[in-house]
Amino acid sequence: MTKASKKRLHMVQHHERCKGCGFCILECPKEALSVSDDVNRKGYPLVKLDEEKCIVCAICHTVCPDYVFERREVA
Amino acid sequence: MAQKLIPELLVEDNKFCPGCGHGIVNRVLAEVLEELGLADKAVGSLAVGCGCLMMDTFGTDWVQAPHGRAAAVAVGVKRVRPECCVFTYQGDGDSLAIGFSETMYAAIRNENITAIIVNNGIFGMTGGQMAPTSLPGQRTTTSPKGRDAALTGQPLNIINQMKNLPVGYLARGSVDTAKEINKVKKYIRTGIETQMKGGGYSMIEILSPCPTNWKMTLQNSLDHIRSTVRATYPLGEFVKDGERTDA
Lengths: 75, 247
Known about the structure:
heterodimer; A: two-stranded antiparallel ribbon; B: alpha/beta; oxidoreductase activity, acting on the aldehyde or oxo group of donors, iron-sulfur protein as acceptor (chain B); THDP-binding (chain B); TPP_enzyme_TPP-bd (chain B); 2-oxoacid:Fd_oxidoreductase (chain B)
């Protein structure tokens, strides 16, 4: 197995961009997203990702109006 | 599965309200321009409205047109720089109220540009006034008892106005679900490809929520689009490669 193939895809969140609209929470097919108690610098509530439920389908990336989610290879 | 990264054309975070559909359309448009290799050859034309906020955040070249006249300016740019990908990005109040004449005549002359019209049924930036696209009975700040169709007319369906003209491509999408957003991406890609192969005028209308001015939660806005707005503005491709697809 090469080193590259060991990398796994993960959903990476850019919390500072979030405006807390909740579109990702409404659309997530596995209900892996929820509102957390923390807020970002703009004062919007953060979206918490449950890695165990997440199937990395990237629907949150598709619906997010504020570019919070990316599907990235993380070593 | 491939990576899904944020397009480099989105040089800054957007400035739209929470839940606004413009952000999704911006990302989809950036992805299409990058995938087609047109990021350096794209010129956008903006007039007035919430869409103008993207001038600071979207990394293509822009021309600021007078209110409503984005289509006329885009036509001028395309005629002198035919190698560029020229598009307009407007809301419904801008393109279909003040700029109706310019939008319509660009289609009547079958000018080789792509128009992206984000339809949220109101004037968003000025505080939610009634637009030509407001639905009958819709409450806005200038129709607090609901739009009276007997007094102000029926909502303007721009695709019905254009589909008998000799245009290249007409489609209507919506950003209320992930599935429809993927279709919007396909429509925008086809529209821009139509322009780049000289296929004539292409227009993509996109139904978008405006939770701030509709005074609804995002969930209610999305339900409203699915249950009510789509009935007046059906989705799909109406003209493709100059041929009616719904006839």
